[in-house]
Amino acid sequence: MAENKQDFDISVVIPLYNEAESIAELAEYIDSVMEREKFKYEIIFVDDGSTDNSWQVVEQLSGANPSVKGIRFRRNYGKSAALNEGFRRTSGRVVVTMDADLQDNPDEIPELYRMITEKGFDLVSGWKKKRYDSLLKRVSTKLFNFVTRLVTGIKLHDFNCGLKAYNCKVVQSIEVYGEMHRYIPVMAKWAGFSKIGEKVVQHRPRKYGTTKFGMERFINGFLDLMSITFVTRFGRKPMHLFGMIGTILFVAGFLIAIYLAYAKFFMDGYHMTQRPLFYFGILAMILGTQLFVAGFLGELIVRSGQDRNKYLVETTTESNWQE
After folding, report:
1. Are residues 260 and 129 in the same domain?
2. pLDDT tens, position by position, 89-133
């Protein structure tokens, strides 16, 4: 495990997947910024199961620079898993995340640090106001951010920007899993960290490799938005959602049944099953019962306290991790 918390001013967490060409250049750039600002720092590269020689580069950098540390996954788990594992091992007062493709500018780090330490923000998200991406990615990103702002009420322009800064208490309080890295500000807000800001940051053209963006990520982003909205509001109290909807449906169906029984005996007298309303009532009661049971089972599962965060870390640059 990492050292006691806040042994460093800044921990820089960098998830990577097949970025061997850019890693050394990025590490050198970050080093120069940190030395210039006289920060105590660590750089944590999290290799998310790369199939190129990314890990060999990280090992070389770690051997030459004690500030560089590495974590390697046995297979590709995704960016959220990489961030979560990196967060668990940070020792900095402020945690900065950035991508490994050189599109994020390390010169932004000092101001992000000051916004956390001097202005009191819990989380500061980068805003790539001018982007060097394809038209499809720019349009889909704007639509994604608009819907996310609308649903979550968090007024950020760029939820998916990899360049972010956090108070160390934030990363200690959240769990990032699945594909939820896009919604860390949402998770932070629901964890009680309400002072969330943003800073316009420079976005640079990709220098090496190819983008990992695809339409499936755009579609999955909206599915994840629905998921995180449910998890943050009802993840620990599923009965409040399923039980409420189930009760409403069951009561509505029961009232329909009472009305039809009354109508049969005191009004027109024809068979209840001859009216379409009868089947709507039965369906409502069945669905209501099922949803109520689903909420009850959800409560039991929540209380079982299953651990989501056991990833197969193959190896680390252990010489740079102090126990």
Report:
1. no
2. 999 999 999 999 889 999 999 999 999 999 999 999 999 888 776
Length of the chain: 323
Residues 80 and 211 in one domain: yes
**Domain identity same for 253 and 227:** no
If you ran DSSP here, which 8-state letter would residue 101 be given? S
Residues 198 and 120 in one domain: yes
- Give the domain range for residue 253: 239-304
Q: 4 φ, ψ to 5°?
A: -55, 145
Q: Are 220 and 295 within one domain?
A: no
Counting as low any pLDDT under 70, the low residues of the chain are: 1-6, 133-134, 209-225, 228-229, 231-233, 235, 268-270, 304-312, 314, 318-323
Residue 90 contacts residue 44 (beta carbons within 8 Å): yes
What is d(CA 212, CA 303) in angstroms, rounded to the nearest whole number? 37
Give CA–CA dist 170/90, Å, rounded.
Answer: 12
Q: Residue 139 carries which side chain, given as an amino acid letter?
A: V
Do 115 and 124 contact (CB within 8 A), yes or no?
yes
Q: Which amino acid type is present at position 262?
A: Y
